Hints:
- Chain A contains 13 helices and no strands.
- Chain A is mainly α.
Amino acid sequence: xxxxxxxxxxxxxxxxxxxxxxxxxxxxxxxxxxxxxxxxxxxxxxxxxxxxxxxxxxxxxxxxxxxxxxxxxxxxxxxxxxxxxxxxxxxxxxxxxxxxxxxxxxxxxxxxxxxxxxxxxxxxxxxxxxxxxxxxxxxxxxxxxxxxxxxxxxxxxxxxxxxxxxxxxxxxxxxxxxxxxxxxxxxxxxxxxxxxxxxxxxxxxxxxxxxxxxxxxxxxxxxxxxxxxxxxxxxxxxxxxxxxxxxxxxxxxxxxxxxxxxxxxxxxxxxxxxxxxxxxxxxxxxxxxxxxxxxxxxxxxxxxxxxxxxxxxxxxxxx
Amino acid sequence: xxxxxxxxxxxxxxxxxxxxxxxxxxxxxxxxxxxxxxxxxxxxxxxxxxxxxxxxxxxxxxxxxxxxxxxxxxxxxxxxxxxxxxxxxxxxxxxxxxxxxxxxxxxxxxxxxxxxxxxxxxxxxxxxxxxxxxxxxxxxxxxxxxxxxxxxxxxxxxxxxxxxxxxxxxxxxxxxxxxxxxxxxxxxxxxxxxxxxxxxxxxxxxxxxxxxxxxxxxxxxxxxxxxxxxxxxxxxxxxxxxxxxxxxxxxxxxxxxxxxxxxxxxxxxxxxxxxxx
Lengths: 319, 277
C-alpha cells in the first residue's frame, strides 16, 4: 500500500519519540470512533475463531458444560488420516476433482458467452445478461431442490425421461444420487449451472473496458476478427481472467451447499468435501476436535492456494 | 464492419441455447408449482399441460407457519443488512481516509482473513455465541452475520471511498464541519451505488443463509425461511407442487431487489455474499 502521508514530517531529522507517540495517539483518537466496532467484530468473530479452531483441533472437545476438554496432541489429525472409511482422504480427492472438472468448464463457458454477447451486432445484451445471471441470484437451496427434481431417479425425472424414454440413450433409468460418479456429475452440473453467470457478467464488464480504438487500428491494418480476438481481446482481458480464475478456484475448493443440499455427503460419505465433512462431524456427531482439525487443514490449504495464485498473477486487485 | 449473416445466426444460436439452458429449469419449476398435490413424481407430460393457478401458493403460505418464517427471515435479514452496511461504511471510511500507526498491520490482518474460507469459523463462532448465552436468539445470528461480514464490505467500499477527491471535503471544512460531517455529507452520498450493491448482496447472503442459522436457532417458532424450506422439503418430499410454490415465494424478495437495482449495480465477486467471506 502506498498512501502518501498528508502530514509527513520533514525529511532528514525525525521528531523525538514523545512527539511521535503523541501524534500517533491523536491519530488513533480520530479514527477510533469509525473503526472500533468493525475491528472489534472482526477480532471476535473472524480472527479469534481462527485461533480457537487451532486450539480445539488439539483437544478432545466436548460441548457439555464443565467438560474438561483435555489436550490430546495430534490425535485428531492422526485419526483424520487413519480412519478406516478414509472420509478425509475421500473429501480431499473430491475437492481436487471438483477443481479440475469445474474450473476449466466454468471459465471457458464464461469467456465464450461473454465475448459472443458482447459482439457488436448482438441486440438485447441486457436481456441476455439478466437471464445468464438469474441462477446467481437464486438461492442454493432452491436450485438444489430443482436439480434433485430434474435428476430424480425413476423414469419420470426429466433427465431420465429425456434420455431413457424419449431418446433411449440410457439403457435404464439412472438413480443419479445413489451412485458415486453420477452423484458427482450432478453436483458438478449444479455448481456450473449456478455460477457460470457470474463469470459472464465479470467478463462483460471487462470487455466493455477495452477501448474501441484498438479494434479500429487493427481493422485499418487489415487484421481479421479472429486475429483481433487473440491479439487484442485476450491480452487486454488478462487481469480479468486472473481475477475470475482465482475466484473460480476458490469457489471449487469450497463446495459446501453444492454437496450438502444435493447429497448430504452420500452415498456413504463418498461425495463429502472438507467443509461439508467438517460441518456434519461437528453438528451431527459432535466430534468438535476432529472437525476442527479438518477445518484447520482446509484453512491452511486454501490460504496457500490463494496466496500463491495472487503472487503468481501479480498483486491483482481482489475486489 | 458487416458480419456475414450465417455467422450472426451461429452466434445467436449459441447464446440463445445458453439462455434457454438457464431459463428452462426455472420454467419447469414454475410449471411444477401449479401441479396439485400429487404424492408421486409428476410426469413431464402433466407438467407441460398444467393450467396455471395459485392454489399451491395460498396453501403453502398458510401451512406449517410459513408466513411466520417469512417474517422471521425478514427481521433477521433487514437488521443484519442495516448493521452490516453501517459497520462496513464506518470501517471503510476509517481505512480510506485516516492515517494511524499500525494501519498497515491491521490492513494485512484483514486481507489475510479474506484468504481463509469463512465457513471454517462456524464451530468457534457457535461456541462464542454459546458462551455469551445467545444461542437460540436473533442477537446470536446478528452478531455473527454483522461481525463476520465487516471485512468483506470494508474491502468492497474502501476502493470507492478512496476514489472520492479530497477537494470535496473543503466545503465541509470551511463550514467548520468535522470527520462525521464529511462522512455523512460527502462519502455516503458519493458512494450510493456501491453501498446499494453491497446492501443487495448482503440481503441475498443473509436471506438464504442456512448453516449458521441451523446451528444457532433451536426453537421451531424462530426458524428462518431456508431452514423451514428444507424441513418442508423433508416432510413433503414428493409433493413437488408445494415444495416449489414455497421455494418461489422465498425467491421473490431477492429477485425483486435485483431486477429493480440491476442497472445501478457495481461489480463484486460471487462468493462474497456480504455475510462471511
